[in-house]
Amino acid sequence: FNQKTMSNWIQTGLSLAESKKAIILLHGRGASAESILSLTSYLDLADFSVFAPQAAQRTWYPYGFMASDEGNLSALNSSLRQVSLLVQFLNENGKAPEQIYVMGFSQGACLSLEFTARNAQKFGGVIAFTGGLIGENLEEEKYKGDFQGTPILLSGSAHDMHVPAQRIHDSAQLLQKMGAEVSLSLFEDELHTIRPEELTWVNQQLFL
């Protein structure tokens, strides 16, 4: 894997000229682009270009993902724009939306879902490890487009103190309503982590 750093993202895996697909990896709160890239050794990404953007001050938005919308608004808009610019860069370099995958953990999982639901179209796939759509309440009018059968995988703990299972379920329902093929897998532990079973599941569902 050759690795190069752009203005605010790291690129690794195949070059865009060589790859068939691209994946965007979004890190969790307090983490880094480098840390989320450690997932690549567990995922079957042999024919992918891999991109990991870095959040300003290591956080995509300051408060919890279900906190009052005003508090998160400015930082969240900036983070959504950062992902949008990266997708635009991929489009300009020959990757159609259906060749683009978005994957995140925790805060990054929430951002993955929020970005793709606000720009719903036929993506390659969306993977949210421990996350849901962002907002004090789920407001359907914020989201537009049609996922056209995009596979979206949601997973995490049924008892996570930061990410209520109910919000994961509600997000899954809304995404399904928007045309996504949603798969949901919740574990009976209380861990805020990515489990080996989740990585195996994603490999089998999306990357075989």
What do you see in this structure?
- The protein is α/β, with parallel strands linked by helices.
- The chain has an eight-stranded mixed β-sheet with strand order 1-2-4-3-5-6-7-8, with helices on both faces.
- The longest helix has 24 residues.
- It is globular, with a radius of gyration of 15 Å.
Question: Mind sketching the topology for me?
Answer:
Blueprint lengths: L3 E2 L3 E5 L7 E6 L6 H5 L10 E6 L15 H24 L7 E6 L1 H12 L6 E5 L21 E7 L7 H13 L3 E7 L8 H12 L1
Parallel strand pairs: 3-4, 3-5, 5-6, 6-7, 7-8
Antiparallel strand pairs: 1-2, 2-4
Q: Count every helix, treating DSSP H or I runs of 4 or more residues as helices.
A: 5
Head-to-tail CA distance between termini: 20 Å
Radius of gyration: 15 Å
Helical content stands at 25-40%
Envelope shape: globular
SS content category: alpha/beta
Order of helices and strands: EEEHEHEHEEHEH
Largest β-sheet summary? 8 strands, mixed
Q: Would you identify the regions where 5 or more consecutive residues have pLDDT less than 50?
A: none
**What is the residue-mean pLDDT, rounded to a whole number?**
95
**Strands in their spatial order, largest beta sheet:** 1-2-4-3-5-6-7-8
E-strand count: 8
The portion of residues forming beta strands comes to 15-25%
